[in-house]
């Protein structure tokens, strides 16, 4: 009885008793949800166009952020560093396509997946070799991101909105809108989507697989840079950032591996729900730190009822 | 020349289906076994035991378990580390609750616990496939490691939160704990690994192995020819987790001596997946080749600059190591996606027809 009370009554009582705290929790969840959605978006883009489950997306976030910070530390002005970092990400995309993906065309999915894990390890070693393993400060103010905070007083309570979080949300939303415009309105974007729909058909109408792959990996690199900047502003830049890549995986399960909408909605849902669960159920009952697994278990339960995720393409199997 | 098969006639089906249809294979295996059982233990130093011989055996056993699930039954799993953890913690609890228990029995029984947990987390595989399932097994990985950390009963309420292997004796000689000699531990591991390998070889080439392979190749087709997918997938999860659990118990009791929860975190799952894939999915021998490569590589990388007298700091070596392992994985996948075992098969075929090209 006591346990039931703790599970089903107390959390909601707490929520109603301190609505301003609830709002704060929701806001925090929303911000991390936006970041999960961004990383998941990088996964989805690559998966749609090449059926590659790109495990390296998380480390690309770290690598982009480290390159940016490293370049700035060498005395290059902040915005020029951003442009140079984009150049590095483009080079990375070309290299990966040329060295890793092209020789592996047509191999089973699991082999390509392993290859991206190989890329991940390589980038971890390479990044630590060049930039060192210690935690670094993201160049937030140098990039013109405001660092103050707004204080609101809803329900006579107290709510703190950090300006860099707001910038993160705005940045992520505009990135997503830009991406959707690109995919739907431009020639290249249509080619990416065509490749996602049907490889053979896309090739037969003259869409170049290689160009599109480089392009898609470069877009994933841009997304990684944006994610790296906003997450780095919150938590500093180090290889610990890699764990957020794992967080994007349940988002993918929940939303479906092919769906851009799914990645966004799934990301937001997981960000908010895991925060709520951690604060109201995890910490009082289970000793905390439930965020490491909650998203996975949630996604697992959803998958039991919808094996293709909430927005994934219906799985049709032929013998 | 060496592998000439001419003159080795088979006069019955039974003879054709034996483990070694070609005599030279049996001789080669005999030589390898002689090295493993006699020559290595006689010549190896303490360092070799601890950094090469025991780790290779433990990792290849874990990879063998994963390979049954992924290579034979086609269910991709990323949660191997956690199942090793279940085995290790189960063994620890049994040994601390019943100190009189024989360690061999405890190790073999601890696999049962992880088999049970494996079946539990294998249940979603009936509805989820491919990468979705791989991510689902990550749920096991993160949840179990979290449990190892939070459930204090598992580590006997130690202040450190880690498990420490107690002193265990068998037949009057210490086999686990700080006083055990490396050679005893090596032989202990070798016995278990040999047992498990014989079990795995015979399972995978028998009826059960064929059922698993049919499930792997196309599960709907397998269902149509009358294979019970529920049974096939769950037995794969059970057998795989059992072997992985046993390897986890060996990992802590016969090699590391102590373990913190984060030892079983995702890097070890990936390391074992590398071993299975670089060695070759769907091959028993590949696990050993993969394990030798993955275990020996860092050691070689560490000693190579020293022998040439190039001064490199240990941190740099560590980073270079990660980098080289990553590059090698990609390299091996490109030259032979089916792994080292397949590479050996090709070489062997060349040997058989040598010196002719066809």
From TrEMBL, chain B:
Stored Pfam families: BPD_transp_2
Key words of the record: Cell membrane, Membrane, Transmembrane, Transmembrane helix
TM segment ranges: 20-40, 52-69, 76-95, 101-123, 130-148, 186-203, 234-256, 268-301, 308-335
Membrane protein topology class: Multi-pass membrane protein
Localisation: Cell membrane
The name this protein goes by in its record: Branched-chain amino acid ABC transporter permease
Organism annotation: Pseudohalocynthiibacter aestuariivivens
């Amino acid at each position: 009885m006591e346990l039931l009370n703790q599970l089903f009554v107390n959390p909601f009582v707490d929520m109603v008793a301190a609505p301003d705290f609830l709002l704060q929790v929701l806001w925090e969840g929303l911000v991390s949800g936006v970041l999960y959605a961004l990383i998941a978006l990088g996964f989805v883009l690559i998966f749609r166009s090449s059926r590659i489950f790109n495990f390296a997306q998380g480390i690309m976030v770290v690598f982009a952020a480290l390159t940016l910070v490293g370049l700035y530390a060498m005395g290059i002005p902040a915005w020029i560093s951003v442009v140079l970092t984009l150049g590095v990400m483009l080079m990375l995309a070309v290299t990966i396509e040329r060295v890793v993906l092209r020789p592996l065309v047509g191999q089973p999915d699991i082999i390509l997946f392993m290859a991206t894990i190989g890329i991940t390890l390589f980038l971890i070693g390479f990044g630590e070799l060049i930039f060192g393993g210690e935690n670094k400060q993201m160049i937030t103010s140098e990039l013109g991101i405001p660092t103050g905070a707004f204080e609101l007083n809803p329900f006579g309570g107290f709510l703190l909105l950090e300006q860099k979080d707001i910038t993160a949300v705005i940045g992520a939303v505009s990135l997503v809108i830009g991406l959707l415009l690109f995919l739907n309105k431009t020639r290249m974007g249509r080619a990416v989507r065509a490749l996602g729909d049907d490889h053979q058909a896309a090739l037969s109408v003259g869409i170049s697989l290689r160009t599109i792959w480089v392009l898609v990996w470069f877009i994933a690199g841009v997304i990684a840079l944006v994610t790296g900047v906003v997450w780095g502003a919150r938590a500093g830049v180090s290889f610990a950032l890699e764990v957020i890549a794992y967080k994007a995986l349940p988002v993918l399960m929940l939303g479906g591996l092919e769906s851009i909408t799914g990645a966004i909605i799934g990301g937001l849902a997981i960000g908010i729900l895991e925060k709520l669960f951690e604060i109201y159920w995890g910490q009082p009952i289970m000793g905390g730190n439930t965020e490491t697994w909650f998203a996975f278990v949630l996604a697992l339960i959803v998958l039991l009822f919808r094996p293709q995720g909430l927005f994934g393409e219906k799985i049709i199997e032929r013998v | 020349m060496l592998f000439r098969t001419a003159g080795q006639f088979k006069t019955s089906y039974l003879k054709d289906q034996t483990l070694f249809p070609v005599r030279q294979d049996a001789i080669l295996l005999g030589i390898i076994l002689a090295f493993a059982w006699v020559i290595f233990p006689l010549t190896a130093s303490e360092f070799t035991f601890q950094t090469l011989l025991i780790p290779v055996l433990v990792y290849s056993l874990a990879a063998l378990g994963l390979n049954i699930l992924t290579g034979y039954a086609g269910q991709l799993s990323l949660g191997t580390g956690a199942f090793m953890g279940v085995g290790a913690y189960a063994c620890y609890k049994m040994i601390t609750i019943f100190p009189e228990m024989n360690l061999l029995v405890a190790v073999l029984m601890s696999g049962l616990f992880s088999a049970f947990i494996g079946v539990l987390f294998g249940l979603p595989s009936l509805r989820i496939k491919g990468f979705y399932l791989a991510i689902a097994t990550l749920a096991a990985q993160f949840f179990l490691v979290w449990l190892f950390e939070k459930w204090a009963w598992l580590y006997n309420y130690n202040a450190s939160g880690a498990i420490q292997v107690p002193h265990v004796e068998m037949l009057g000689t210490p086999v686990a704990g700080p006083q055990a000699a490396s050679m005893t531990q090596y032989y202990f591991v070798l016995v278990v690994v040999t047992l498990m390998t014989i079990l795995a070889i015979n399972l995978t080439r028998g009826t059960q192995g064929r059922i698993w392979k049919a499930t792997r190749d196309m599960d709907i087709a397998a269902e149509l020819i009358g294979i019970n997918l529920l049974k096939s997938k769950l037995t794969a999860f059970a057998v795989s987790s059992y072997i992985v659990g046993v390897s986890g118990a060996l990992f802590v009791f016969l090699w590391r001596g102590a373990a913190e929860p984060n030892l079983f975190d995702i890097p070890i799952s990936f390391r074992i997946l590398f071993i299975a894939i670089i060695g070759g999915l769907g091959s028993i021998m590949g696990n050993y080749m993969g394990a030798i490569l993955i275990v020996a590589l860092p050691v070689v990388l560490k000693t190579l600059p020293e022998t040439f007298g190039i001064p490199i700091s240990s941190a740099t070596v560590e980073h270079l190591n990660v980098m080289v392992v990553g590059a090698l994985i990609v390299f091996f996948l490109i030259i032979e996606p089916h792994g080292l075992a397949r590479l050996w098969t090709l070489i062997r075929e060349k040997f058989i027809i040598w010196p002719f090209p066809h």
